[in-house]
Amino acid sequence: MADHLMERIANGELPPQMPLPAEGEISRQYGVSLGTTRLATQLLRQRGLVMTLRSKGTYPVKNSKKIALWFLQRKRDDPEQELADFLSFIEQRSKGTDAEAN
Questions:
Q1: Cα dist. 11→7, 43, 63 in Å?
Q2: Which of 7, 29, 88, 94 has the smallest count of CB within 10 Å of its CB?
Q3: How many angstroms separate the first and last alpha carbons of the chain?
């Protein structure tokens, strides 16, 4: 999840001037617990990709796009495939959640 958020930062979907969605919203988007979301956010802070401002939100840091791309390329041989696999997992999980809601 943290790597997917890094990719969203890297491609400009989560720009530095806008806060990340609230932790509760991220939890719903990914279908994970609030604790998991907090761990992912903490990992992004440790990697220097985001900064949390008390009562203001969590923001991608300036130049985080370069940092995120570097990390993704260093960490995996094929980051695009990793992202595609993760998005497929999320899509399947979302379909299951939609079916349960109906």
A1: 6, 19, 12
A2: 88
A3: 26
